[in-house]
């Protein structure tokens, strides 16, 4: 836990507690995070800390304070029954008032910058984020994860007034079945500023790490969309391209491992997909860079950029890598002695950032093409190619379909 608890003045003059996670760098746009039915538990504090790494100062109000301050439940059957009792007795209107008070408190903190604010919520908090977006003009962007009961409050959408609202829904969510979801999505289509996303084959709470229904691909996609919406509305704006260029410079030019690691989050990971080389966590990845990558690449290794797509939290880089295989390259050709062959290989990098730091790299290439070029794989009779793949990427006028024996059969005889 990286945050601390602060007091919030309620609109009725009383006070309640809230967990504050401060944005990386000490300050950032303010976001109020609305809890699940289990109170401000470890899962909610972790979400707040995670969003703080993305550049937001996050306040998690104790929305059960009128019933019982400091509720912090787990996910046992006994805890679920307690949580459900709190949920059944919860006053949504009072909850929205407390979100308003929390936004006001957040604005006054030095950790919060800018005038635009956001609200993110899960489960119970997902509906509260929806209501806050519709009722509170100070909410510039709201994101609701699998909110419960939104279909009963669709008339509230009239109050949205074009502000941004993102709703994540789970296909198998028994608390928001298909009929309810259809009503919500239909109303959203008619309302400017609303984005709806359905995650197939997943259940309620799919974004809760270590939860019974946690689904990592869906959670990652939802997080990407959440941060994209927050970035567009609240900021902060990071120059991901410049951050990536700095990382590459230390990898291939200065060959400085500490400087390379300094561009990354505390526990990053790198995965070279074809060979499964890289590392998970600071210690393993630093070791990998020091002994198997940064200082082990051929001196003539070079990257030729082809295209770059920059999103809210990631970059997709298309490039050609060229080198002479004059030394063993642990990460690409592990255990293969130098062959002296020249290699040209198209590559694709999916580079994820968390705030201003690189979080992970997924690097792809055609290993068969590499093996052909270093003489370890004969292409005859196989649908594989060597350096031609790189040349074709650079020059689209080169022949297509040369590996397809049946290509000639589809030719128009009249041509």
TrEMBL record:
Molecular function (GO) terms listed? Answer: hydrolase activity
Q: Which domain of life is it from?
A: Bacteria
Q: Where does the Dienelactone hydrolase domain lie?
A: 16-232
Record keywords, A-Z:
Hydrolase
The SnoaL-like domain covers 249-358
Q: Which InterPro entries match?
A: AB_hydrolase_fold, Dienelactn_hydro, Dienelactone_hydrolase-like, NTF2-like_dom_sf, SnoaL-like
Q: What is the official name of this protein in its record?
A: Dienelactone hydrolase
Source species: Pseudomonas syringae pv. actinidiae
Q: Could you read off the lineage of the organism from its UniProt record? A: Bacteria, Pseudomonadati, Pseudomonadota, Gammaproteobacteria, Pseudomonadales
């Amino acid at each position: 836990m990286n945050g601390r608890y602060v007091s919030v003045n309620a609109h009725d003059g009383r006070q309640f507690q809230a967990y504050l996670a401060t944005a990386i760098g000490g300050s950032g746009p303010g976001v109020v995070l609305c809890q699940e039915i289990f109170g401000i538990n470890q899962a909610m504090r972790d979400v707040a800390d995670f969003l703080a790494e993305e550049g937001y100062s996050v306040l998690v109000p104790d929305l059960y304070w009128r019933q019982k301050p400091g509720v912090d439940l787990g996910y046992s059957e006994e805890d679920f029954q307690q949580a459900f009792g709190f949920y059944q007795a919860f006053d949504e209107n009072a909850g929205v008032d407390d979100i308003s008070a929390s936004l006001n408190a957040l604005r006054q903190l030095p950790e919060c910058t800018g005038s635009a604010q956001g609200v993110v919520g899960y489960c119970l908090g997902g509906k509260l984020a929806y209501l806050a977006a519709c009722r509170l003009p100070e909410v510039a962007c709201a994101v609701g994860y699998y909110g419960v009961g939104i279909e009963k409050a669709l008339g509230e959408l009239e109050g949205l007034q074009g502000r941004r609202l993102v709703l994540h829904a789970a296909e198998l969510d028994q608390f928001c079945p298909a009929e309810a979801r259809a009503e919500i999505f239909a109303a959203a289509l008619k309302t400017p500023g609303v984005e709806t996303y359905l995650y197939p084959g997943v259940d309620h709470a799919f974004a809760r790490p270590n939860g019974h229904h946690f689904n990592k691909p869906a959670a990652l996609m939802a997080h990407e969309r959440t941060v994209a919406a927050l970035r567009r509305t609240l900021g902060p704006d990071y120059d991901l391209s410049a951050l990536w260029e700095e990382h590459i410079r230390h990898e291939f030019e200065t060959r400085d491992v500490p400087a390379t690691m300094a561009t990354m989050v505390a526990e990053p990971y790198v995965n070279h997909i074809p060979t499964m080389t890289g590392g998970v966590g600071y210690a393993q990845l630093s070791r990998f860079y020091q002994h198997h990558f940064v200082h082990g690449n051929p001196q003539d290794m070079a990257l030729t950029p082809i295209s770059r797509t920059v999103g809210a939290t990631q970059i997709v880089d298309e490039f050609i890598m060229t080198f002479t295989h004059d030394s063993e390259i642990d990460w690409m050709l592990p255990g293969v002695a130098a062959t002296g062959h020249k290699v040209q290989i198209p590559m694709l990098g999916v580079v994820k950032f968390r705030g201003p730091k690189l979080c992970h790299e997924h690097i792809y290439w055609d290993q068969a093409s590499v093996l052909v070029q270093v003489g370890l794989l004969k292409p005859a009779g196989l649908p594989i190619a060597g350096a031609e793949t790189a040349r074709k990427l650079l020059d689209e006028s080169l022949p297509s379909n040369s590996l397809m024996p049946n290509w000639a059969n589809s030719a128009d005889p009249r041509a």
